[in-house]
């Protein structure tokens, strides 16, 4: 059975991500892994090292285990509540793992022994955006991930996924990613909107031909009837993303995280305020060329 991996720092945002992952797992028939990473005092630096100098690993492990158990109990209670209302729903098994180390490395270690389909993480509100993205592990996870990462806004309540917007520059490497995304769409009977966001330099002749070639190859390789192409011509890609969020009536936005382009700029910190406009909906971030089944 595949698993959804949920890193938690015991914050409201992480708790909400857990609830979203629970709903998702019920639809996908996946299990859940709730995990927490912590730094051993011997690996901490600066102020953290001073604060933890008198705390040993055993004490931290016990405290983390207690917190993780409490968080798991909340999620299990929600699972039971949903099972009472909808007895036909799949009841995802839930396990907990805590490891010492940096979060990206801990996630990779867990995946070595577990069939993880994706990581589901919480996003704090826009007011804490700069601190959250620059000061937390989220940026590192997204930048280093070899797996899909689903970022869930703190206040977003799960709803069935009926429409998915996939933002693309028509890179052929996006086609295997769309094959993976189509599997998710099939479970929810969702439409996929291929949103080609371009700037004012878009030329009708050569660029339209490139779009036709991309869609032709996509339809030949991806079996999903409800795939639609939209060209969004904007002054720049960031404003094009605004259009997707404001006009596409979507339930999920998906993108490939190239180590250049818009997501790189957003997670690098230069566009954090711009990203504040883009966290009203869950954002599914794929590594380049990813094609495994979700």
CATH class of the largest domain: Alpha Beta
> How does the overall form come out from the CA principal axes?
globular
* Class based on secondary structure composition and strand pairing: alpha/beta
Strand order of the largest sheet: 3-2-1-4-5-10-9-6-7-8
Supply the number of structural domains.
2
CATH superfamily grouping of the largest domain: HUPs
Main sheet characteristics: 10 strands, mixed
Helical stretch tally: 11
User: Level of helix content?
Assistant: 40-55%
Number of strands: 10
Could you give the order of the helices and strands?
EHEHHEHEHHEEHEHEHEHHE
- Secondary-structure arrangement, i.e. CATH architecture of the largest domain: 3-Layer(aba) Sandwich
Find the CATH topology of the largest domain. Answer: Rossmann fold
Low-confidence stretches: 125-135, 269-276
Organism: Mucilaginibacter mali
Domain UspA: 1-153, 161-287
Protein name: Universal stress protein
Family: Belongs to the universal stress protein A family.
């Amino acid at each position: 059975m595949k698993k959804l991996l949920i890193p938690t720092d015991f914050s409201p945002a992480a708790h909400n991500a857990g609830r979203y992952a629970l709903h998702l797992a019920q639809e996908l028939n996946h299990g859940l892994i709730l995990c927490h990473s912590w730094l051993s005092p011997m690996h901490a630096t600066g102020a953290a090292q001073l604060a933890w100098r008198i705390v040993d690993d055993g004490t931290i492990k016990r405290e983390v285990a207690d917190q993780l158990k409490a968080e798991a109990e909340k999620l299990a209670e929600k699972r039971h509540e949903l099972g009472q209302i909808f007895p036909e729903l799949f009841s995802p098994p839930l396990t907990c793992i805590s490891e010492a180390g940096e979060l990206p490395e801990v996630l990779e270690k867990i995946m070595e022994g577990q069939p993880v389909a994706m990581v589901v993480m919480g996003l704090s509100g826009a007011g804490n955006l700069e601190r959250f993205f620059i000061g937390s592990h989220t940026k590192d996870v997204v930048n280093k991930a070899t797996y899909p990462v689903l970022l869930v806004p703190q206040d977003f309540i799960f709803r069935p996924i009926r429409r998915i917007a996939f933002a693309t520059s028509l890179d052929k490497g996006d086609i295997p990613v769309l094959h993976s995304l189509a599997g998710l769409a099939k479970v929810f009977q969702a439409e996929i909107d291929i949103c080609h966001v371009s700037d004012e330099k878009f030329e009708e002749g050569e660029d339209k031909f490139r779009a036709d070639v991309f869609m032709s190859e996509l339809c030949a390789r991806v079996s999903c009837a409800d795939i639609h192409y939209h060209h969004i011509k904007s002054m720049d890609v960031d404003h094009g993303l605004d259009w997707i969020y404001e006009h596409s009536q979507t339930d999920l936005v998906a993108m490939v995280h190239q180590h250049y382009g818009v997501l790189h700029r957003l997670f690098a910190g230069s566009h954090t305020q711009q990203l504040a406009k883009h966290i009203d909906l869950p954002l599914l971030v794929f590594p380049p060329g990813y094609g495994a089944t979700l």
